[in-house]
Amino acid sequence: MRRVLRQVDSDFSNLVSDLQKLIRQPSVSAKNQGIEECARLVSKIMRKSGIRTQILKISNATPLVFGEVRSKKNPTKTLLFYNHYDVQPAEPFELWDDEPFSGKVKGNKIFGRGSADDKGELITRIKAVESFLKVHGDVPCNIKFVIEGEEEIGSAHIESYLKKYRKKFACDAVIWEFGYVDSKNRPIIGLGMKGLLYVEMSVKEAVRDAHSSLAVIIKNPAWRLIEALDTLRDPSGKILIRNWYDEVEPFSKEDLALLQKEPFDERAFKSEYGVREFVAGKRGIEVKKALAGDPTCNIAGMISGYTMQGAKTVLPASATVKIDFRLVPRMDPKKQFARLKSHLRRNGFSDIKIKRYHGEAASRTNPTDPFVSCVRDAAKDSFGNYVVNVSNAGTGPMHSFASVLRAPCVSIGSTHVFSRIHSPNEYARLDLLKKTTKCMCLIIDNFSKQAN
Ligand SMILES: [Zn+2]
């Protein structure tokens, strides 16, 4: 192993130059900019590293890059890396210090859209595999790559890809597309993601806006919507829809032990966001439990009437709200949507139109899964320390992987918490890219040695 890790050191300048090539190829899925070109570039870089690739395509989806190296020594176990080659739009351009797709290196940082999310993460994995191939001409276990091109716009087709290519993608464990490194340089080993139900509710009353003096006789759709919204949750955040929590299970003993250990700096967090108090006055372990395991009903946006400068006395014709509900394991987005619809009906809000945008189930890997210990040991050896996170508070298509491939998913990576992903001046730290590449080598090695 020592030779493989030394190989990572001696080859590091190639990692940086390949990452620069990837950053310089814009691949903005939201605008369909450079997507096919980037898929081809990823495939080219992987082939140069000794990984067999294939560009897969299903209708209406962006291409998916599949990569594979079969192990001569140990072909019975397979580790799969999930990544994405698409990036967020770079706007607002004027807030970037350099050109957004520059790949410029300054000191310990490499800048550009995608440098961290997710091209930086992807390159560490490709180079880890390349290091084994250069030293041993083989990998310790089979390696597969699934690299999609629409993660930043909601991964709408990843489940169809997984189902169609279930056999091709078959594996025993999955390393998730991203991983954070906290402000104390500890990698965060993530075991889960929350699910999501995204809906739009709207009320239309009149055919056009009216003079607000008519509010005495014409109903105001904004009030109507607010009355409906008020029935959805109480001020503590508890959702009041019947049977909403039916399937939710309490944390296991192991989860609770991990939550106790997980660091969370309440004061720093509050000052970062300029908030005085958390929802329902939560503090200590309650905050960590909520982040990992509480469903939410969040108003993402509301539009009605006049919201520009000065006063305008108007009675709006319609009102619209967008709501995201975060879901936790065992909640089915379709079932929850049906519960929401019958809640509105039962409470006399049948006039409110409701549309479902997006549904995704939550996923959580059991902390006692042997694969988790492979990752923990590798993190300890490469970073000296680590943090285990029971579940990310955000959403990703982890449930699709866990259910279709029936494999545990764990996230770990190189993205520093303040890497400004999705924002101007996104960067990746070179020291973390190198440590993470070594960490990936160690994960592959630990995993290959673990009994089937
Ligand atoms: Zn992203």
UniProtKB/TrEMBL annotation:
Tagged with keyword Transferase: no
Keyword terms: Hydrolase, Metal-binding, Protease
GO MF term set: metal ion binding; peptidase activity
Classification via Gene3D superfamilies: 3.30.70.360, Zn peptidases (3.40.630.10)
Pfam families: M20_dimer (PF07687), Peptidase_M20 (PF01546)
Peptidase M20 dimerisation domain: residues covered: 194-347
GO process terms (BP): proteolysis
Listed name of the protein: Peptidase M20
Organism of provenance: Candidatus Nitrosotenuis uzonensis
Lineage: Archaea, Nitrososphaerota, Candidatus Nitrosotenuis
